[in-house]
Amino acid sequence: MDLSLTTILVLVTAGVSLMAEQRYDLKRKLLFNAYDIKHSNEWYRWITHGFVHGGFLHLAVNMYVFYIFGGIVENTFDQLFAEMGRFYFLTLYLFGIVASSISAFMKHKDNPGYNSLGASGAVASIMFVFILFYPTSPLYLFFIPIGIPAFLVGILYLWYESYMSKRGGTMIAHDAHFWGAVFGIAFIAVMVPEQFSSFFSQVIGYLTSFTT
To answer: Phi and psi at residue 43, in whole multiples of 5°?
Structure first.
């Protein structure tokens, strides 16, 4: 059976995360610690922290959201890039992990006590690529029975994550969510710049449909 890359990434992430939950020494070696990256040259942490999570709920939420959006984005990339689709999809995911942590690295590279983990940044990258291709698709949040168009969810997401990042005081890496989303937008700006005209056409068509 030919598994999708999305499914493979979910399985690998789940396996590593669950193993790390049983072995703290392994988890400690894999999580994002900017101080260790800078002072001990442990560059692998840029990637490995995206494959460990802070408990089962954190893992389940990230992988559920990734599976929903990732499958659609992977299929879209297959149609756009043919045999290179999987390569670009994996590039988007892995570099989404890295890009989402640059802000934290700059802030905490001399702070040995700062750690972060999770695939949220990469998931945000994937989600925003979905939004750029399917901006009027209805998304259902927090058991709200009415679907909210994806482009509106994207706007609210960016505002919320930016606000919470500046506010601070939580254990959630809101800056990683924000910059992961920005990376997803930037990736499409480089790879498929013409998609932006399609995005705005779809949004304008959706908005004008309420006036006709």
So the answer is: -65, -25
**Cβ neighbours for 202, distance < 8 A, ≥ 6 positions apart:** 135, 136
Round to whole Å and give the CA distance between 96 and 176.
Answer: 9
For the chain, how many residues are written? 212
63-108 pLDDT tens trace: 999 999 999 999 999 999 999 999 999 999 999 999 999 999 999 9
| Two structure tokens written together for 84 | 């290179």
What digits encode the pLDDT tens for the residues 99-149? 999 999 999 999 999 999 999 999 999 999 999 999 999 998 766 778 899
The rounded distance, in Å, linking the Cα atoms of 126 and 164 is 21
User: What are the structure tokens assigned to 79, written together?
Assistant: 């149609």
Distances in whole angstroms, Cα of residue 27 to Cα of each of 17, 68, 122, 131: 8, 26, 19, 32
- Which helix H or strand E contains 71, and what residues bound it? helix 56-81
